[in-house]
Known about the structure:
Order of helices and strands: HEEHHEHEE
Shape: globular
Protein name: RNA 3'-terminal phosphate cyclase insert domain-containing protein
Strand content: 15-25%
Structural class: alpha+beta
Helix content: 25-40%
Number of domains: 2
Number of helices: 4
GO molecular function, one term: RNA endonuclease activity
Distance between the termini: 53 Å
GO cellular component, one term: nucleolus
Pfam families: RTC_insert (PF05189)
Amino acid sequence: MVHVARGILNQFLTDIYIYTDSCKGKQSGRSPGFGLTLVAETTNGAFLAAEATSNPKGSTEPPSIPEDIGKQAAHLLLEEIYRGGCVDSSSQSLAVLCMVLGQQDVSKVQTGPLSPYTIQFLRHIRQFLQVMFKVEADKREQMGANGQQLKTGGEKLILTCVGAGYSNISKRVA
């Protein structure tokens, strides 16, 4: 599984480090299958992640092959890298939630294209917390050291909002 993912990713970058942490038997709990999570760190310190898991035992889908799971996880990670932004597509809604519940100040985050889950989450925030986001395309061009425009993947978005100023009323203030 890991060797297949490394083989796919080595086509794009040669210095890839994959650390494995596997559990078998009782150490893995009552896990019905297996999976792989790949994380990429950008030069700016952002982490992008992708994961693939096997079909559970007894499902209507055919049993998963570890090599297919490795290939799927590598392709998903490459898609997340292409999408770009400061958070991956599965973490967009968490970043949005932190912005909304934060101080009554302007917050911004750069993301790749919004996932369907995040779009619906923004609708729920508008409905329940009456906080609206300004979503605009990031028009800044990324230039390399030699003055050429860099190919930075998919369209980037800038999400901006004013936080609701949520605070825990049960917390003691000294």
